[in-house]
Amino acid sequence: HDRYLLNAVTTKTLGFTGTGSAVVVEGNYAAWREATQAMPAAKEKKVAAPAPPSAPVPAAASSPKPPPPFSGNARDLSKARIKAHEAVTKAERAVQTQESALADVETALASGGNGTDHVALAAEHTRLRGAVEAAVAAWERAVSEQEVLA
After folding, report:
1. What angle, 0 to 180 degrees and rounded to 10, lies between the N-to-C axes of helices 118-149 and 74-111?
2. pTM of the entire structure?
């Protein structure tokens, strides 16, 4: 992603820590960077003095139920893997297409040229942001389904 763009358009930032958790920060990319730079000190404190164990969380409440394992023969599994790979590839192309269209609209908005219908561009920008989010969600589902078959 373009950090300048993220700083300019985001109001909330979801950042993944690399340890299997995520941090939500109210603010743009710069605010997220500041928040994550303060995190290593907090992590060190947690490692040095672990918290007392809390009540166990039922497995169903802590994570979504994984899909059932594939129950077909080897040939069907191979076909399912190919279809899953094709679905991921198609979803990736859809994300790229939507992101490219969004970038074009953002460029038009940033240029501020005379005779430009900024209201229409802003509406298109909002629509495309939703389309990008939907495309990313579809890609995430396709990747998840592919991982089940791997």
Report:
1. 160
2. 0.51
- CA-nearest of 93, 89, 99, 74 to 143 is 89
- Contact between 27 and 13 (Cβ < 8 Å): yes
Return phi, psi of residue 70, to 5°: -65, 135
pLDDT tens profile 86-120: 999 999 999 999 999 999 999 988 887 777 788 88
Rounded Cα–Cα distance for residues 32 and 29 (Å): 5
pLDDT tens across 20-43, in order?
Answer: 777 788 888 788 788 777 765 544
**Site of tokens 């994300």:** 95
| Triad 88, 91, 93: Cα angle to 5° | 110
Give yes or no for a contact between 12 and 26, defined as CB atoms under 8 angstroms apart.
yes
Q: How far apart are CA 145 and CA 143, in angstroms?
A: 5
